[in-house]
Amino acid sequence: MGYAGYVPAKLPTSLTALQAALFAVNSVASLEIMEKLMYNATVNPSEPKFKKIRLGNAKIQAAIVEAPGALDAMLAMGWTRTLEEGEDVLLLKKAATMAVVRNVQEAIARAKKTEAEAQRAAQRAASAKTSVAVPGSGSRDDLRALLDADRRERAAQAPVTQGSKAQELPGAGAQIRTAGEAGLNRG
Fold it and tell me: pTM to 2 decimals?
């Protein structure tokens, strides 16, 4: 037992086949469409329209068929690819579960995080290429030259010969009243 009777956390050491297939999809838009399709099939299990996906549909074609790894992820979720009435379709034969939907949502979060990290890295690389040389970011000789310039500047200034003095505040001083003077402490 862990602390205060809690079960110790056990982190998964390896990915399931479904998670590996979903994490291979890098397109957030594709993952979001897959999540919507799986959610609809899970929430409405008796509706046949949510258990069939026409691969000829332009939006599905772009999001699932043409996106790298997306069709493999759909097959890993339980969809089967078949020809129906001369049309290429995906059919969901088994019952969909919310666990699969949560796996897709986790893949979406992971893809968004990876995308944001890539954007930050690109911004850092772009700013490093276009940045102006900052004083002190150069070589050792540049740093020594800056230190020498600072020493010469301080030497040119007049030395401090007096300490600081307290200055009187405007008015008669602190405006403090006791509780008795304010009439609050009369028993």
Answer: 0.61
